[in-house]
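Report of the visiting student (M.T.), summer placement. My assignment was to run the structure pipeline on a short list of targets and document each run. The first record concerns ATP synthase subunit a.
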Amino acid sequence: MSAEEVSTSPKEYITHHLEHLQINLHNLKIMHENDDTTTFWILNIDSIFFSVVLGVFFLTLFRYVAKSATSGIPGKLQTIIELIINFVDKNVREIYHGKSSVIAPLALTIFVWVFLMNFMDILPIDLLPLIQEYFFSNLPSLRIVPSADVNITLSMAIGVFVLILFYNIKIKGIIGFSKELILKPFNHPVFIPINLILESVSLLSKPISLGLRLFGNMYAGELIFILIAGLLPWWSQWLLSVPWAIFHILVISLQAFLFMMLTIVYLSMASEEH
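After the run finished, the structure tokens were exported:
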């Protein structure tokens, strides 16, 4: 979108930045988010693309540091990576009391990956869309913050939910897990239907709250940046965007930390034998 369009139509500017670059798998058609042909078989390919790129960047960076690590005085990059690993490991040891070689790497992956996805919100909102428009002018729109897409956050939450079910069944067995669903909180056969409803709601609320919390905070942060850029003159935007960006660094870090911590807590609860 050109500067002329931004200055004359802030509504179109804001709407444009809230649309995903989508592809309809049914007929392999690149489309707008608000097209009437929207069906279930649609992917937000911008969110998927940036999620994969950031994931590969995370793995490449940590692998490079691990292979080049030294036992002497570490460099700045190695020091930062070691601080992150020690921070995650400390939280896992304090919260998760079971025996699993998966929890710590999972927590590290979640924390760093979610932080990187959130950090995309700090980039100037027009930077990557303008680059995309320059090289691929036929593409309709582009959003660069994967965690501001509810499909991404709920997908990650569903992955955690599958692990919750896996550890519940692995540690307690199918019978033990079933007893938890039908005999808690009221340990009497009469209350089995009520127990099943209460425990099912409690179980399903975990991935829903996990995914929606991250999505809501990141979508709101992205929207504020868009409103600042779309409604204020260019020469005055820094008066609000810079303070908000500084504060938003705390928000994106906190959201990555909360997603990691809740994942550890949920898996710790699932790993309890009684």
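The chain has a mean pLDDT of 87. The chain has nine helices and three strands. I thank the supervising group for their guidance throughout the placement.
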